[in-house]
Write a structure and sequence with these properties.
By secondary structure, the chain is an alpha/beta fold. The protein has two domains: 4-197, Rossmann fold (3-Layer(aba) Sandwich); 244-421, NAD(P)-binding Rossmann-like Domain (Rossmann fold). The chain is built from 13 helices and 15 strands. The protein has helices at residues 14-23, 35-42, 53-62, 97-106, 126-137, 176-187, 199-230, 234-241, 265-275, 281-307, 335-345, 372-377, 394-399, and strands spanning 4-8, 27-31, 65-68, 79-82, 115-118, 147-150, 169-173, 193-196, 316-320, 349-353, 359-362, 365-368, 382-385, 404-406, 419-421. The strands form three sheets. The protein has an eight-stranded mixed beta sheet, with helices on both faces. A five-stranded parallel beta sheet has the order 10-9-13-14-15, with helices on one face. A hairpin with a 2-residue loop joins strand 11 and strand 12. The radius of gyration is 23 Å and the shape is globular. The chain binds nicotinamide-adenine-dinucleotide. Nicotinamide-adenine-dinucleotide binds next to helix 4.
């Protein structure tokens, strides 16, 4: 009998996971609350550039992958992987309501002996405190007739080397047997499994990884502001420091944190520790520095326009890139949107170009990007590079003679008095 996996939540994490397991011989049922997500997948369209439409089409045609909004289909699954969002609330507290509603929807249907793995990033204790009681209420005995584990998702959208299959996967169970079973099933589809002692350890691993990134990015963002005052180029300094073959890991500054993970995950830990009356100072400080970056960039825009005897108000600003990082189409938490909003607020006439993002929503209205042809032809008072997509022709931008504020070092190697870094 073939092993059946149900993937709950067909987003940036769920789709690559579902495809990897289906390609390894599992029959995979994707379950989402969105009719649209299910329809799109059943039509053979991938929602992420990391998985091609062709791969989805082949699996759908073979009957190895299907999507539905019917949660009762979970009853067929031996393995259930939960990949729903875990955003922050307006007050920057964890919002685990998607985990709660996904659990409440699957619990009535899960069969005896199933392995349930939470993949959504969350604070240590979620699997035991939020998920376990819901299964116990239905009479399950965890570690005996139901197996619960946590396995953090490490997918890095746009990364061509490290994908879901070859990136080591950390797995920790609520009991030893939970961990062993989850590791065994995941090991059938993924190359390397790293077992840890508990679900809490696995939850904490993810928070350490992303807290490490957030803090180091905070450090180099501060370095960029320090270097600007000293008239030094932060990127040159980081590159030179990175020539040390040991004991240094390079992080690069930017206009602020973006995406679904780095700006959010450390705050899950910070919140959990606040509940225990402990303040995680490193996280709070990094958050303060990183959150200030869009404000700092807008100030720099004002200073540069000032040098050209112009004000922000009324200036035509071209924002290059709105995705939160290069070579992807995701604008969630993108600092570029913050820059857009702040510049518009100050009265700038802002247009954007992004080869991956045709439009985005701003204050309830759809804002469309301009074409590359318009970028080359039209006049601007300032060009602001917010995202360094690889396919952009930076030589053309640098040579237009228009002042450029480059927050990503995309113009490395080009010289000119009109070219500015952070
Ligand atoms: N995107 C990344 O790069 C990344 C990387 C590592 C970890 N994560 C974590 O993985 C989790 C999922 O992130 P994502 O980027 O895939 O989110 P996403 O928003 O792309 O996808 C989530 C999907 O879940 C669906 N959904 C919402 N509520 C549901 C419910 N109750 N039942 C079933 N489906 C439901 C949504 O319709 C959506 O399709 C988050 O916890 C995130 O922090 C994301």
């Amino acid at each position: 009998m073939e092993t059946v996996q149900a993937v709950i939540g067909l987003g940036y994490v769920g789709v690559p996971l579902a495809v990897a397991f289906a390609e390894s011989g599992f029959k995979v049922i994707g379950v989402d609350v969105s009719e649209e997500k299910a329809k799109v997948l059943n039509q053979g369209t991938s929602i992420t550039p990391d998985v091609s439409d062709e791969r989805v089409q082949a699996l759908v045609a073979e009957g190895r992958l299907e999507a539905t909004t019917d949660f009762s289909r979970v009853s067929e699954a031996d393995l259930i992987s939960i990949c729903v969002p875990t955003p922050l609330s307006k007050s920057k507290d964890p919002d685990i309501s998607y985990i709660v509603s996904a659990c409440d929807a699957i619990v009535p249907h899960v069969k005896e002996g199933a392995v349930v793995v939470l993949e959504s990033t969350t604070y240590p204790g979620t699997t035991r405190e939020i998920i376990l009681p819901r299964f116990e209420k239905r009479g399950f005995k965890v570690g005996e007739n139901l197996f619960l584990a946590f396995s953090p998702e490490r997918v890095d959208p746009g990364n061509e080397t490290w994908n879901i299959r070859n990136t080591p996967k950390v797995v920790g169970g609520l009991t030893k047997e939970c961990g062993r079973r989850a590791a065994e099933l995941y090991g059938r589809a993924l190359e390397t499994i790293i077992p840890v002692q508990s679900a809490e350890s696995a939850e904490m691993v993810k928070l350490l990884e992303n807290t490490f990134r957030a803090i180091n990015i905070g450090l180099v963002n501060e370095l960029a502001m320090v270097c600007s005052r000293l008239g030094l180029n932060a990127w040159e300094i980081i590159d030179a420091a990175a020539s040390k073959p040991f004991g240094f890991m390079a992080f690069r500054p930017g206009p602020g944190l973006g995406g679904h993970c780095i700006p959010i995950d450390p705050l899950y830990l910070s919140w959990k520790m606040r509940m225990l009356d402990y303040r995680v100072r490193f996280i709070d400080l990094a958050d303060e520095v990183n959150s200030f970056m869009p404000e700092y960039v807008v100030r720099r825009c004002g200073e540069i326009l000032n040098e050209y005897e112009k004000s922000v108000k009324g200036s035509r600003v071209l924002l290059m890139g709105v995705a939160y990082k290069k070579d992807i189409d995701d604008v969630r938490e993108s600092p570029a949107l913050d820059l857009y909003e702040k510049l518009v607020h100050l009265g700038a006439r802002v247009v954007y170009h992004d080869p991956y993002v045709k439009s985005f929503n701003f204050r309830g209205e759809t804002t469309e990007g301009i074409s590359w042809d318009q970028v080359c032809r039209e006049d601007f008072d300032l060009i602001l590079i917010a995202t360094d997509h690889s396919r952009t022709d930076y030589a053309t931008l640098a040579k237009r003679g228009i002042p450029v504020l480059d927050t990503r070092n995309a113009l490395k190697g080009f010289e000119g008095e009109h070219l500015f870094t952070l």
